[in-house]
Structure formats: structure tokens, C-alpha cells
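Notes, p. 3: input format for complexes.
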Amino acid sequence: MIWYIARRIIYLIPTLLIISVIAFAVIQLPPGDFLASLISKAEETVDQAQVDALRERYGLDEPIYVQYWKWISGIITRGDFGDSFEWNRPVSDLIWERLGLTMVISLFTLAFVWIVSIPIGIYSAVKKYTIGDYLVTIIGFIGLAIPNFLLALVLMYIAFRYFGQSVGGLFSPEYIEADWSLERVLDLLSHLWLPVIILGTAGTAALIRVMRANLLDELSKLYVDAARARGLSELKLLFKYPVRVALNPLVSAMAWIFPALVSGSAITSIVLNLQTTGPLLYRSLQAQDMYLAGSLILLVSVLTIIGTLVSDILLAWIDPRIQLQ
Amino acid sequence: MQPTHTRLNAAAATDDVLLEVKEVKTHFFTDEGVVKAVEGVNLSLKRGQTLCVVGESGCGKSVTARSILRIVPPPGEIVSGEILFRQRDGRTVDLAQLNPKGREIREIRGGEISMIFQEPMSALSPVHTIGSQIMEAILLHLTVTKQEARKRAVSMLDLVGIPRPSETLDAYSFELSGGMRQRAMIAIALACEPQLLIADEPTTALDVTTQANILDLIADLQQESGMSVLFITHDLGVVAEIADEVVVMYLGRDVESGAVDAIFHDPKHPYTRALLQSIPRYDSRDNKRLYSIKGTVPHPFDRPTGCPFHPRCDDFIAGQCNLIDPQRALISRDHSARCLLYPTAAIHNPDEEPAT
Amino acid sequence: MTGATTPPPVDDRAEAAPETRIVVANQWQLIWWKFRKHRLAMFAGLVTLLLYAVALFAEFIAPYSAGTYSATHTFLPPQNIQLFQQTETGWRFYPHVYGHKVQVDPESFKRTYVVDEEIAYPVGLFVRGEEYELWGLFTLDLHLIGAAQYGDPVHLIGTDRLGRDVLSRTIYGTRVSMSVGLVGVGLSLGLGVILGGISGYYGGLIDNLIQRAIEILRSLPTIPLWMGLSAAIPLTWPPVRVYFAITVLLSLIGWTALAREVRGRFLSLKTEDFVIAARLDGVRELQIILRHMVPSMTSHIIASVTLAIPGMILAETALSFLGIGLRPPVVSWGVLLQEAQNVRSIATAPWLLFPGLAVVVSVLAMNFLGDGLRDAADPYQT
Ligand SMILES: Nc1ncnc2c1ncn2[C@@H]1O[C@H](COP(=O)(O)OP(=O)(O)O)[C@@H](O)[C@H]1O
Ligand code: SF4
Ligand SMILES: [Mg+2]
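Output follows (1063 residues plus adenosine-5'-diphosphate):
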């Protein structure tokens, strides 16, 4: 097992490298030298010495690979992601809490997706071709077809129109800027349900279908008959064997569900005005605040890669066949 | 009941009959139509004996076996017939009448009747250890503690000839070879000392040497425990080696049944003869081409009229075989064939009736 | 004698081989038979065809052009079609919509519309309206549906903040949104078939590399990446170039699923008898791929493509909705939904969400269709 994990982590290195290159490319993509745009935006005249210091720091006069090297080595050795020009603060000051909240939302959504989709998937497979199964299938398809942001808009409209409530945000106004405390955590939890449902709908619909298909596959396998021939009751049989085996692909589905959640939360967060990475990335892209944008893309990607790694390890842990390969 | 049946039922009265299958029909109600997989099969198995069911692939052997254990997959259902099984406590139950999900049949499964399958790989769970599956059977049917169950599991693995049994207990099926898997399946099946073992082509997926080993193992275990074996195969070589009685099946029914000697040395039904002619013999000197039965088993939707074998039969009698569904004809005391070549009238003749 | 003439069982490869030609000739027929049994998929197929027809004939179907605006009819609510009108002699068939009166709230100065049943604007099919050029070829003024008298304000789904007809704009949006999906999937398919094919056919190191690349791409959060990349598209680019840039971006990340599918098919086909036979006959590799392997995968690929289009449509909608995908004056469903970006605008004009309904319907239809196709693609499996 330890070897397996070690191998997976080594595999990660080229992935991380590629991600960092992509993120760096995003930083470099906008035409022109960003210092120039910085200077043009600045209200007061900029001190020439300061500009030279920045040039030196980011290696702007040097070849592109040197710039990349300066950037990435700064991140790895010092946790220095560069400065946000719009906020006039180091990027690292701005991102960690937002990254944490992104993580919290994604994990809660993942839990929601699993808790809802597994029992429904089992029901749908065991009762296949019944009205209940058709209903689940149709609702699932609709869940897959509604874009997150549209669902967010519709739910917000319903809440506004029929309950006179303005939903959105992750905190009540009094807690937005407050320090972390038990009350703030509780406040967060009470706001979490809406984004979790919105983000989780598509994933839940997808996983129900995966679970149903897998379970149908497994139900017709010989080992199920063999266990039945041993005298096991239908319910115990169902949960001990086919459901257990059908869970494996579900765990491996986490490898794409998690990136999809993080990805989807970007847009949903913008619509619902959540304090996650999404809106910050959006604003930074519009303001061409490229170090902030690049860092966000880098970190969000790393986050999903770690999610994928965790799902791989989990899968190896529950499926003894994996480690052998 | 027709007279035919009362005649053969005589055997049921004697104590040593463990299982009696009478005119069982199992159909699959698919979207495309009804598949009559088993269409009136009869078997009778005595205590301690081995009954072999032979026939080409698709003749309903597996469905017959599953019908006995009531594990026919949907949309399959037993539509008629009786499956009389004498339980340990002396009661006779009709398995065909039991609720397939009910308690009664579940106590019989694994406890009194066990089954092993053709593919030992897929018959074992890919994500559970061998031990977890043996102990499951033991804990279901015997009142023992977990430790005792574990001990018994180890001794069962030892009994079936698995080396280092206590290590194998924690192994997964993919870590074992095909032969070892089948041994493990046998260990699971025999863990609760069933009265009847149903073996559905247990050696077909194995290589020749392993096949012989597994056959020997089953024979040895049967000797020791005195259980009965219902052995399904399409390999007549295997039949010759292990059978006491033989039932030849074609298109979901028994076409000929009798003692192994009678079937091999005095086959009556043209299908049995054709089967026997198609086994390769290493003692045959001449280079005659191996005989093979003409045509293939028809699709169950196109069940031929009259005698179901008539499109492929060498002795086909036009105007009769394609119209009349042959009844069972008694050849001798326990040898019967369903073929129009033999007069069923014999059955009605009281003189021929064997003394009981 | 039916028994003797029955075809051999399907798994009997050796016996089936001489009949391969007949089997291939029948494959599409078998697929069609199986597909036809899928009621829902059939219906979804019909809806999909309809949507593409709308995309093709948008100018004819829409009552107005995408840009027609009316300063006096901003945020006009949808008008219900009344089929009958009461006259002195009874009811008569006279499809029309009611007019509106504007009321200004004396305190807040907010304008609201009140239905005015005194005014009836007749509505008709095949009416004369604005002139348009269909595909740049014909100049016509015939519209499938619209005000029977040219100039009457008939807005069945209401208007937006500039008084533009939401229905017409959604119809025009169909063209862009549905075609982004199609073109994007076309590009993805090219990449997927080439890379997946190479991967599956040659195996070994190349396969390994491509598989790793796919894994990496799949583990990335696509929307932030798309956001980052599309934000780099210069604002000065003409709409058509932006359209292609976005499509390319979408397909650059979207090809992986198709590549996996193709690779899987290749791997299983590689061992099939007829491919081995072709190779033994000394047929060149490329020819094997093109002649024998690609055609036998077509049905599966069609199914996968159908299932991939909705993803593209959703992605385009999301990006444009955020304002970093397609931009006005291009009209796509996502661009239209931009008008409904916050609760306040939805509260004043919920009908602005109508393009969202179009998204849901099209994605649903193509998912059902693709699902049915995938089931039917294996005519031998039950
Ligand atoms: N689940 C099922 N659904 C429909 N038909 C089935 C099913 N299982 C078996 N059959 C049909 O029953 C017949 C007998 O099958 P089987 O008992 O497996 O044959 P054998 O074991 O003698 O090879 C076959 O024609 C097969 O097509
Ligand atoms: S009944 Fe006729 S067709 Fe059937 S086995 Fe006997 S001779 Fe052959
Ligand atoms: Mg069988």
C-alpha cells in the first residue's frame, strides 16, 4: 500500500509541472507587459526605483523560462505567489481563506452527492423498470441538463419572489469580516445548504446513473448467485456483495466528480456571491490582475489533483485488485 | 397423473431417494417471447449416488440445476412440476412450491443442498477473502462462534487439498489459480455437510490435469461423507468415470435415463447414440472421421414440433416424429427413453411390471 | 424443419465468419430496429432535429430580427395568445394578444404594464414582417409566426431591457449555441479519434503517454481553466474569430472522453478475427485502421458524439453567461442569459430566463438521444 501511494505521488510530479506551466501561460497571455498596465493604472506617479525593483523581482527583462523559474521557485520555496496589482497586496494574503472555503463547499457537496445518490441508485437498480425507477431516471436527466448557474438563478428567484428572502453569500452580513469563531462556523453551515444543493445536483444525477448501471451489472454476476446458493437472505446479499463491488467505480468516479465540483463552484459562486476562489478569479481576470489569476488557477488545479489522488488511494484501499496492477 | 408417471414414482416411495424432479418446466418470459428452457424434466437421485446430467450446451442443464435451488434468474420461473427433496429431519418438501426468497429454501441452500459453478473465478467475490465467504456459509447454517467458524473454514480448506490453508483464508480469489479457486468453491459448498452437491460443469473451465484432480477430490469427499452428487457435464468421458445414473437432456427434457452401464452399452435414444459416437476414442485404430451430430441445437424460440430432436435425427420417421410428441418408454426396470422407436404400450402391460 | 435452418448462435465465431458480409449489411438495420423501440430516444431525436431546423431557419421562424428594439416596450411581459374573441354574435376564431397600458407609480416613478383588453393585436402564421436575408441568398419578409399586421407589438415571451423580443433572440441564439456544440465536438472528435486511435492501436509507450496526458487533462478543473484562457482573447477580435477561439478552447479540453472511448473500442477490436486476418494478409496498418476498424466503431462514436455535444453547449453557455465567452452582438443562449445575471433583473423580468429553458431542453434531448443510440449501438446485446 505504501508503495502504491508512493508511486501515485511520483506520478503526480509531471502533472503538477504541466499545471504550473498552464497557470504561468495564463499569466503571460494578455498582450503587453503587465508592469506597463500597472503603471498606467496607478493614480500617483510610480517611483522609477520601485518599477525597477519589480522588473528585477519578476525577471521581466529576462527570457521567459527564467521568468517561469523565478515565479515557480518563489512559490515553492517562499510561498510567494507575487503581488496582486489590483488589491496592492501579496497574492498569498488574498487566497488562502477563499481556497479553504472552496474546499469546504466541495467536500460538503461531495458528501451530499454520495449520501443522496447511493441509496437512490440502489433503489433504481433493484426496482428496475418500475415507475420509481423511471421517475428517478427522468429527474436525474433533468438534473444533469440544468446548468448550475441557471439552477442558482431559479432558486434565488423562487426564494426572493415567494419567501421574500435574499439568499446567497456564505455568511450573514455581520460575520463577513469577523474573525473565525464558533458562531461564524455555525453561520457558515446555515448558509451552506443552498450552494451544496445547487452544486450537487448534477453530480448526484450522474452518480445515480453510475450506481444503477454498475449495480445492474453486478447483480447478474455469478458470485451473487453463488452467495444466494449459500442461503444468504436477499437484503444481506445485496449489501454484502453487489453493492459493495458497485461502490468501487463510484469511488473512482470521485476522480472526475471532484474537479467538476470545484469547476462548477466557480460559476455558482459568482452567481450566489460566495467568498470562494471563483469570484476572485473572475474579478482578477477582468482586471487583468494576472498574478492573482494565475495563482488561483494553479492552486485550484492542485486542489483537484489532490482530490483525485485521495480518490485513487481510497479506491486501492477498498479494492484489493488495484494494488496488484 | 398419467400412468407413465405413477410407474416411475414407485421409486419415490423407497427411503433412499433423496431428490425427485417430476415434469418440471422452467420458462423465461422475455420481451421477445417465452424461452422454454426446461420443458418437462424428470430426475431421481438416490442417497450417496452420483447422477450425471449430460447434453449439448443450451439444453437446459444449468436451468434445471438452478430450478432445484430456486435461483433461476428473472424473468425465469418454474411454471409447473414438482421437486421433492427429503430433508435431514425426514420430511419431504416440494421445493417448487417454496417462496424463492423465503426462510425455508434459504435453510436448504448451502445447508442441505450446495452448488458449485462452471467458472470458479466469477463465482467468488472479487473483493472478499475466501475465508469471509466460507465463514459466511458456516455461520449461516451452523450454530458456532466466529472463532469456531474460522477453525472449521481452515480445516475445510485443508480437506479440499489447499496448501497453507490458514493463509489462503485471507487471500482473494484473484490470488489463486483456477484449480485452487474451484477447490475453494468446493470447500465453501461442503462446509455445512450438505446432503446433496450440485456441480454444474465444475471442471469445464479447467485444464485436463486439474480437471482430473477435481474429479478425484469430489469422488473422495463423496465417499467420506456419503452425500449425493448431481453432476452436470457435456463431457461423456467424465460421465463414464463418475456416474452411477445418467440422464441425457435435449431441449429442456430428459430424453433417456438409466444406469451408467445401460446408457453406455445399450443406448436407446438416437440422441444418446449420436452423443456417444461423437466422443473421441484413443482406442480406435482406424482414421474414421469423428462423428458429429448434424445441425445445431435450435434456438429455443423455434422449438420443433413433435419430437424436439427430429430435425437432427438419423432415425427420423416422417409423418410421425414431426407430429407426435413421444412419451417415456420403459426399456427395462430403470432405463427409459422418449422416442417413438420404442413402444410406450409396454408400460401399460402389467406383466412387464417389475416386482417391488 | 425450422430447426435445421436456424442461424448459428451469435457467439459461434467460427461459423459466423462466412456470413460477416451479410451481418455488416444488416448492422445499421439492427441498430435502427433496436433504437426504434426506445420511445423516449425517438422523441428526443425528433426534438434535436427540430432544434437544428430552428437553427437553420432562424430568420424565418423568429418574428423579429435579433437586434430589433423598441424604446417604448422595454421589459414588456409575455403576452398570452387568445385564440377566440367575443363579438356580438358569439365567439369567433381570432388569434390575438392584448395590448398594454403603461402606469407610472406616482411615488417611486416605476413603470409597470397593465394588460389592456380593449386593444387586440392579431397574431398569425406565415405573416409578412421585417425583411431578412436567408443564408445571405434570398431576401424575404415571410415569418412563421408574428403580428398579423406589420408593426404591432407582439412579444410572446416578452422583451428585454432594450425592448428586444426575447423569443426571437432565443431562436437566433439556437443557431450559435447548437453549432458551437457541433463544431466543438467535431474538433474534439478529430483529436479524440486520432489520439485515441494511436493510443489503442499501437499501445506501449505511446499509449502510456497519451493516457497520462488524458488523465492530467481530466483532473483539471475545466471552468477556471476556460475562464483563464478565454479571458486572454483580445476584446478587439471580430465576433467570428472569438466564436472559433472559444470553440477551439472547448474542444481542446473536451476531447479526452472521446479519445478514451475510441481507445477502448480499438483495444477490443484489435483482437477481433477480421482485423487479425487483414493484418495477416499484409494490409498496411493505416488501411486496416481506415477500412476495417473505423467503420465498425462508427455506431459507438455517433453515440458518444451525441453525448458530448450537451457538455459543449453547457460550457459555452456558462462562459458566455459570465461575459468571458461569446460577446454581444453575437447572440447565443449564454449571451442572452447574461441579461439575467442577478436576482434583481430576474425579479423584474423572469422571462429573461427563457433561453435557459432552451438550454435545458436541448441538453435533455441530446442526452436521451445519445443514451438511446448507445444502447442501440450494440444490436446484439440485450
Ligand atoms: N436468463 C435467461 N434468460 C433467457 N433465457 C435463458 C436464460 N438463461 C438461460 N436461458 C435459456 O435457457 C436455455 C438453457 O440454458 P442452460 O440451462 O444454461 O443450458 P446448458 O446449461 O444446458 O448449457 C438456453 O437456450 C438459454 O438461451
Ligand atoms: S422420436 Fe423420432 S425423431 Fe425423435 S428421436 Fe425418436 S426417432 Fe428420432
Ligand atoms: Mg450450463
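The pocket of magnesium ion (ligand 3) is lined by residues B 61-62, 200-201 (CB under 6 Å).
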